[in-house]
Amino acid sequence: MVKLAFGSCGDSFSASSIKAYVAEFIATLLFVFAGVGSAIAYGQLTKGGALDPAGLVAIAIAHAFALFVGVSMAANISGGHLNPVVTFGLAVGGHITILTGIFYWVAQLLGASVACLLCSSPPTDRLSRRTPSPELARSRAW
């Protein structure tokens, strides 16, 4: 049954709510960083080769551990959603307000975006170069 509650700004900007948003941000960042990072690492180790069953299992296990750590970290603070769809379900079910759900979504999307930016940053061995790497497109270098 749908129980929508919009909520108030006072509840959504309390100290415990801000703490919950930060927890969702950090937990989602860790989850996406570990998951995407494991897929990138597999691609680097196999020189872009085809995905074999063992590699798929390794990436899935990395995702599972990252999800476990993220939910464990944020469960007592924010509920450990880590996923906008879970947040949507809780908002529609009336367990959190719509306004709080929107702020959770923002924190989750920002956390995932920052994690992807961290995964796409250049390796540290190339930071001292004065010219772009040969495998890097000019449009991305500048």
From TrEMBL:
<dbReference type="InterPro" id="IPR023271">
    <property type="entry name" value="Aquaporin-like"/>
</dbReference>
<keyword id="KW-1133">Transmembrane helix</keyword>
<dbReference type="Pfam" id="PF00230">
    <property type="entry name" value="MIP"/>
</dbReference>
<feature type="transmembrane region" description="Helical">
    <location>
        <begin position="20"/>
        <end position="42"/>
    </location>
</feature>
<dbReference type="GO" id="GO:0012505">
    <property type="term" value="C:endomembrane system"/>
</dbReference>
<feature type="transmembrane region" description="Helical">
    <location>
        <begin position="95"/>
        <end position="120"/>
    </location>
</feature>
<dbReference type="GO" id="GO:0016020">
    <property type="term" value="C:membrane"/>
</dbReference>
<keyword id="KW-0677">Repeat</keyword>
<keyword id="KW-0813">Transport</keyword>
<feature type="transmembrane region" description="Helical">
    <location>
        <begin position="54"/>
        <end position="75"/>
    </location>
</feature>
<protein>
    <submittedName>
        <fullName>Os04g0550900 protein</fullName>
    </submittedName>
</protein>
<dbReference type="InterPro" id="IPR000425">
    <property type="entry name" value="MIP"/>
</dbReference>
<comment type="similarity">
    <text>Belongs to the MIP/aquaporin (TC 1.A.8) family.</text>
</comment>
<dbReference type="InterPro" id="IPR034294">
    <property type="entry name" value="Aquaporin_transptr"/>
</dbReference>
<keyword id="KW-0812">Transmembrane</keyword>
<dbReference type="GO" id="GO:0015267">
    <property type="term" value="F:channel activity"/>
</dbReference>
<keyword id="KW-0472">Membrane</keyword>
